[in-house]
Amino acid sequence: MKKVFVGIFLALASYWAQALTPYFYGDKLAAGDLKTAMTTAEQKLVAAGFTVVGRHLPAGIPGHGVLIATEPGLLATVATLGGKAIVAAPIRVGVKADGTVSYVNLEYWLRAYLRTDYGKAEAAMRAAAEKLEKALGKGKAFGGEVKAEDLANYRYMAGMERFGDKSELKTYASFDEAVKTIQDNLAKGVAKTAKVYEVVIPEKKLAVFGVATNDPEDGEGWWVNKIGTEHIAALPWEVFVVDNKAYALYGRFRTALAWPDLGMFQFMKISSHPDSTHAMMAKVAGGSYSAQSN
Hints:
The chain is of the alpha+beta class.
């Protein structure tokens, strides 16, 4: 009996100590033209039941692209959970001109984004993950490791932000005003941004927008090149709306989650990125952001 209890304890310990990585490699496509490779990957996603809602060719990161998709079951689950769960709706797939395909590990990201609600979405997550694997193949996991049980309360290190910290951008009179403001500002290219995708669920008063940051000095081409383009499926940044409020996850959480293996020296090389990117997202939302007041 003692051996049985020891076995159970070790099995549980192994489960809770499970380390997850943020990305998987897919099957490699033919090298050559990036747009052709992205079209091939998109066709695979659509054939597997995904809806591709956006294509992203990040400024200043040549030879790299991102497809953004949704999956019906996972999207419905996120809508049912409501609130900030909407940020978990987009599924990102990286494609490189050399044919390399990578995509997000849904379990990793949903544990971090849904936190205590993760269990309510696990079945939908696993179904969507199986579709991704079938569509794109499942190769080596990469991108660093975080213990599964740490993701619900993830932060890069003591004193840095967790999910939701410093995230609120602006309050509006209504959900419709929030959505229209963001749509209009992205269409105008406010703060050298552009819309990559949008997912709007009006009956739930939820929306999420993918935002390209094209500023050559502060945009994604600047900071991603400094810390590693292999994590291209981390892009683009998001602004999301819940009821009459707009939010964006703060960089010292969002970037650290996407690059959990980042060394402190590398992080210091992009130390201005969390605030400069948050300022861009605030302008997209029609508001303003001051690092000194936060």
